[in-house]
Amino acid sequence: MRAILVLEDGSHFRGDSIGAPIDAEAEIVFNTCMTGYQEIATDPSYRGQMVCMTYPLIGNYGVSDHYAESRRPWISAFVVRESIDDYSNWRAEGGLSAWLKHWGVPGLGGVDTRALTRRLRARGTMRAVLAHYEGTPDVVALVDRARNITPLSEKDLISEASIAERYRIPAGGPARRIVVVDCGIKQNILRSLGRRGADLIVVPHLATAGDVLALNPDGIVLSNGPGDPAALPGVARTVGELIESGAPILGICLGHQLIGIAARATTSRLRFGHHGGNHPVKDLADGHVHITSQNHEFQVDGDSLPRDSGFVVSQINLNDGSVEGLRHLTRPVFSVQYHPEGAPGPQDNQYVFDQFLELVGRE
Known about the structure:
Glucose Oxidase, domain 1
C-alpha cells in the first residue's frame, strides 16, 4: 500500500506503508540514534509526534518486550528510509512493522529521510499528515489538513502518558524511599533507581505536594514527559511547594523544566528540538563534557532565571548553548534536561542517579 507524508509547508514525501494502514496527524521530528527504535517508539515524551529516524536501516534486530520503555508505543507514526522485516536477534519476538500494526501505529518506509531531516533542521518542527492512497493523492487538501492540526502546546498530552493510581516497586530490604512523580516516565529511570537499592513509590502527575509529602519520602524524582511545560501551571506550583519542603529533588527533562518554571524562569520552544543519543553537554562546575541522550522540544530560558530564585544554570548544551541543568545554591535540588537513564543512548550519565542518592543520604 502506498502512503504519503505531507508537511504544512507544502512539501511531501511518498513511500510504502508499514505498520497500521491508518492515517496520522501530528508534528514531526527527527531522531539521530543509530539503534533503539523500540525504546524511542515507547518513550511517552513522544506523545503527539511522528518520528523520522535519520539512520537508514530500521528494524534489523526486530522487537522485544525487553526493549520497551513503557506499556505501549506513544509515537503517532514512524518514518524510515528502509524498514527491515528480515530481522536477526536472539531476543526478538517479532518484526517492527507487525509490532506497529498490532499497536495501531502507522509508518512510512522508502522515504528520503536525509532530505526530510534537512528540511526540519532548516525550517523547524512542522505539523504533518501521513495518509494512505490509491491513484493520485490530493496533496493540496492534505496540506490544508496539516495546517489545521492542533499545535503541541495546546494539547493535554501529559494526562494521557501519566498514570491514574500510584504503585510501589519495593526494594529487597531496608532502603531509601523515593517518590517518583510520573509525568510520562521511562522504565529505565525506575530500573536505574531500583538497581541502586531505592524503594520506589510512583504517583500520578496530579498528586499534590501534600500527597507526596504524606508518603514521607527520603527523596523525590520529577520524571520526563510530553508536551509544553508552560501548559502545566498547577504541576509547577506543586513542584514549587516540594522545593520549599526541603526534600531532596531530582528533575529529569520535563521535570527539569517544571523546576525552572517553579523558580520563576520562562520556557520556550527549540527550533527543531533535541532528539538523539549524541548531544554534548558541559558541566559548568568541573568543565567535564558528557555525551547525552535527549528527547525534548522545550527549554528553560537561562537569562530569565531570577537572581533571587536560589537557582543557577549548572550545565549547558555545547551545540546551541541551551540550558541542560539547574542547581539550587542552598537546597538539595538539581535537575538535568537530558535523559541520564539512556535507553536508547549512552549510559555514561547514570552518575546523575548516584549523585542524587548521595544527596538523599547526606540529607
